[in-house]
Design goal:
By secondary structure, the protein is α+β, with helices and mostly antiparallel strands. It is built from 4 helices and 5 strands, in the order H-E-H-H-E-E-H-E-E. The strands form 2 sheets. A 3-stranded antiparallel sheet has the order 1-3-2. A two-stranded antiparallel sheet has the order 4-5. Strand 2 and strand 3 form a beta hairpin. Helix 1 crosses helix 2. The longest helix has 27 residues.
């Protein structure tokens, strides 16, 4: 399977909706909490991403109400959205495990040999002496 990695705003939005439906402002707050304050999603970015995810069928409008004279939509994850998030979480878990394995294989203060095959049996390429992949 060669699906493209999920972009961070999509990952954060789907993660924020994984445990409960939320409206826009609650999503902004939840994304800030999930990212430990690193990501502060702006309103325009949020609603553009929500529209795209709605079109892709990854989220749905769970409820619409009028609050203080303004329409408020509450969004929920669809089954397709849950499946996409599950696949991405597994992809990230696999990459993180490989990074940890490789970090553990090199002792602190030592340097791996340059020009060594990168990617193991997958044959992803070779790094030359300048670190450029060939």
């Amino acid at each position: 399977m060669t699906e493209r990695a999920m972009q961070e705003p999509t990952l954060l939005l789907l993660t924020a909706l994984a445990d409960a439906p939320r409206h826009g402002y609650a999503l902004i707050q939840e994304i800030a909490a999930i990212s430990d304050g690193r990501v502060k999603m702006r309103t325009g970015t949020l609603y553009g991403a929500l529209d795209r995810l709605l079109q892709q069928g990854l989220i749905e409008v769970a409820a619409e109400e009028i609050v203080d004279g303004r329409a408020r939509r509450t969004y929920a994850l669809t089954e397709d959205g849950r499946a996409a998030l599950t696949v991405e979480a597994e992809r990230l878990r696999s990459v993180a495990q490989e990074a940890e394995r490789r970090l553990a294989a090199v002792r602190p203060g030592s340097r791996p040999a340059l020009g060594k095959a990168v990617g193991g049996a997958a044959g992803l390429g070779f790094a030359n002496s300048t670190g450029v992949f060939a």
